[in-house]
Amino acid sequence: MNxxxxxxxxxxxxxxxxxxxxxxxxYCKYAVVSGFVAIASGRSRGTExxxxxxxxxxxxxFRRMHADFEKAGxxxxxxxxxxxxxxxxxxxxxxxxxxxxxTYVPELELMFAKDxxxxxxxxxxxxxxxxxxxxxxxxxETNIAxxxxxxxxxxxxxxxxxxxxxxxxxxxEDEINRIKGLIKALRKT
Length: 189
Hints:
With 189 residues, this protein is of the alpha+beta class. It contains 8 helices and 7 strands; from the N terminus they run αβαβαβαββαββααα.
């Protein structure tokens, strides 16, 4: 996939993530994380979901955000009730899955920041010009650290290698090591 394509030549997934991010950004900070970061940066591999971390917001704010998702033609797979989604999923540190009505892909996996590591991702979020998308991502260093330190599947390691290659002139190894330290402290058992 050529990431230097004209703006009007966006994929369905690109348009989906920009629309979802546009809704969320009216209410709180967010960061797109995980595999889509590598894909948006030119890695050739498929995905059907977008993982997004958002700030913890009060229920009333989430109700308004959820209503905006519904107005834009999205539906939550778990429930139509904003209160139920908030109480049974977000507050329990479980994700909500949004899709466009009548479809199952692509899918937005939306979750509250769980801990200091997620808060750090939101604080250090960036727009990656190479992607051509008007979307905030967790930093390249964060994605590399998660994939190399915690996830470690073949696909994740390939994503990390791709990000290291594409952003080789900009990567801060000290930052990757700092984040790996946070992962070890907060997520490893």
